[in-house]
Structures are given as structure tokens and as C-alpha cells.
User: What shape does this take?
Amino acid sequence: MPDVSANGTWWVIVLLVLEMAIRVAAVIIVPRDRRPTAAMAWLLAIFLIPEIGVLLFLLIGNPRLPRARRLRQDEINSSIREATAEVDFGPPLPDAPASFTSLVLLNRNLGAMPLSSGNAAQLYPGYEDSIQAMADAVRGARSFVHVEFYILQADETTEVFFQALEEAAARGVTVRVLMDHWANRSKPFYAQTRKRLDRIGAAWHLMLPVQPLRGRYQRPDLRNHRKLLVVDGRLAFTGSQNLTDSTYNLPANLRRGLHWVDLMVCVQGPVVTSIDAVFLGDWYSETGEVLTDEISLDRLPARSGCLDAQIVPSGPGFEYQNNLKLFMGLLFAAQQRVIMVSPYFIPDEGLLVAITTACQRGLQVELFVSEVGDQAMVYHAQRSYYEALLRAGVRIWMYRRPFILHSKSMTIDDEIAIIGSSNMDMRSFGLNLEISMLVRGREFVSHLREVEADYRAASRELTLEEWLQQPLRSTVLDNLARLTSALQ
Assistant: This one.
């Protein structure tokens, strides 16, 4: 008769040895090319729950795109640098601060895009107003329309835009569309949107598709979070807004009465070429098709304003975190005032130091967030930073429910701003493909400050006294979420 107790003992020994081997291997593998906080979070997960921790690490532990995709991004960057090396993008505004000039060089080195002058910009803080403006722009298209949105839904609110696309395609305009696969596949109207694009006659593709049976796979939460529209290479839109209803048509949002508040910008001038280059790069990355005829650097869009602008693409296809470096550089360069708007605010150590240091240098620093959250883990992780920010002197404005303030912008002093798709969180810094636009021009910053004033009027200020009254259970949830947010 077999000795059952002896067999059980052997199994225990095997499991203990296996868990120890996992922990030793994790110490060697996990920290490689990873930020210390992320490495510590992964090691903690693997040490406490080895089997689940290892499974999660295998699924989402690689924060980089596949090597072939990264090589394509390098190829795109090299092509842009080479093609624009001798192009005259116009004289920039005079008396640029030395810090601005050095940041422009940083962006050029990391993201390849040049600074251009002579640009005009119009802000669209109204949700349906921006959709109507984009539809009107498409109705004026004569050559091509390039559409790239993280979430794209053919619903009642966006019908005016899809109708404009259909009319453009009917008169011979080339319509190309990119939309993120993972972000749309489980959303309402996904099947209807695909069918509508087919009916329009658009050439469309999914961005970063997770289709392992077709040989297309990467970490599922590496997403293309960009939002942009280019019409004929003469005007473009970019910003924070997805092309969908302000409720995202999600039952949970409808039950809670949630609506998204966003900010888009329409630009004209040479910077449109850079935005289109981002689209063409993403199109090439997804399809392998080179659309060289769409951009001619010999005939840049006419100068139509007085703004200097530079596009900063970022994401896991790049070697460095381009957007994070830009945000930190601007914070350290600021001399008077910094206003940040970010729905998801989870800074890394460096960004947190830059923000608190700005306060300690005597600057006025404000942060706009939402009073309620749509993603529980992100919402609680974000809250874990409030006490440190408040103690440093940051004024935190909480946009009142039932609205989610989804705009993403930063204004520095009186003449420099950023607007785009990038949140100030570790996901946008390391896992999402983003697009940001650096702008220099007092008029533009003044208009953005008007938008910020509207946000302030619709918000309430969070004080340190109020925050210190948070119940213990909230503090525990916030801290646990903060640990999980570092799993990158």
C-alpha cells in the first residue's frame, strides 16, 4: 500500500522549491530595464502570490511593443528627421526663453517632429460643438480625410460626422480610418460602426489588434490612445475627445448619469503636416502601406496665424517616455504659474518631485480632476497622491459630478501650453500611444485660461482639512490601488 503521507510531503517540497525558484528568477528578470517602483510592485505580487503574480507578469509584464513594431517606429522617426532636416518651417516667435528652445530640441530628438511657426488654433470645449466642427471640416474635404480615434462609435451623437464622411467618400474623397481594437471591441455599436465604415467605402483598420490566431498580438493593454482628424493636409483636430456620445453609451454611465467633458483644438498652418505625419506613421505601422503622396514638404500649409507649435508623439514604440520628459521639463522651467488638467493623475516619482518643487519655488500650481471616477482602481490610485500635493501647496479643483472632466492640458506662465490626448499618469507615459501639441503664443494661452476659468467655476476646491477627514477604509483602498498602478 503506497505511503500517502510521504507522497503528500514530496508534493509540498516540490511546490516550495518551485515557489523559491520563481522568486529567485523574478529578482533576476523583473527589474531589468524597468523603473524601480514598477519592479518593486511586480516583485511584491510575485513574492506574495507566486502563481497569480507570474501569470499576470506573463500577460502584461512586457511594457514594450513587439520588436518589429518598434523598428517601424524607428524607421518612421528617421524618415521624418531626414525629410525635414532642410525644410524651412518659418521663423519662430522672437525672444523665446532658453528653456523653451531646449525643450523643442528635446522633443525633436525624441519624437522627430520639428517646431513650426505661423499656425492658428481654435479651441472647442463644447462636446457636440467639436463634433459638428469636425463634420463641417470633412464636408469641405476635396482630397483626403484621415480619422484616428481611440474610441470610434457610429451613434446618434456622431451621426453628423459619419454622414459627412459618407458625403465626402461619395464625391471621390479618400477616407482612411484608424481605431483602437481593444478599446472598441466590447463597446456598444462596435459591429454597427464597422458596417457603417464599409458602407461609406472607407479604408479602415484596427490599431494594435489583439488577434493571436492571426499572428497579431502584444500586451493587451498597450493601446493607441491618440485622437486626431486631418482634412486635405490643410487643417487638423486633436485633443482629448473620443468620437462617441458623451456617455460612451455604456449602461453603467447611463445609470449614474455620467457625461464626459472634453477639449479639442482645430489647427491650421504648417503644424498640420506633423499631425498628418503621426497618422501616416500609424497607418504604416498597422498596414505596411507607405502613403508618400499625402505629404509634400515643398508645399506646406500656408501660414495662417502667429503660434509656434510642435507635435510630440509618445508611447511604447519609442525608447523614452517623450510626454513625461516634456511635462517635467516644463514644470522645472516655469517661473510663475502652472495649471494642469488631467482626468487620470498618477505621477511617477520624478513628476511628483517636479510638481512639489514648483510649489516650493513659489509658483502657483493648480490641478483639475474629477469629483467622481469612471475607473475604480485609477480613481483610488489618483486619490492616494492628494495629501502630498495639498501639503506641498497645490490647489486641487474637483469638477463636480455627474461630469467626468476628460480634458488634458497644461499652461505654463503666460505663453506656453500643451494640449492633446495624454493624461498625466503612468499608463499614458509608458503604455499608451499618445499625441501632444506644444504651443507658444500668448493669445492661445489666454484662450486656454478662459477654458480653465470655466472649469474652475464648475468645480469645488479640495482642502487639506477636508482630505484629512477621509475614513480609514478609503485610505486603505487608495494605497492598495496605488501599489497596483505601478504594475507596468
User: Anything to note?
Assistant: The two ends are 51 Å apart (CA to CA).
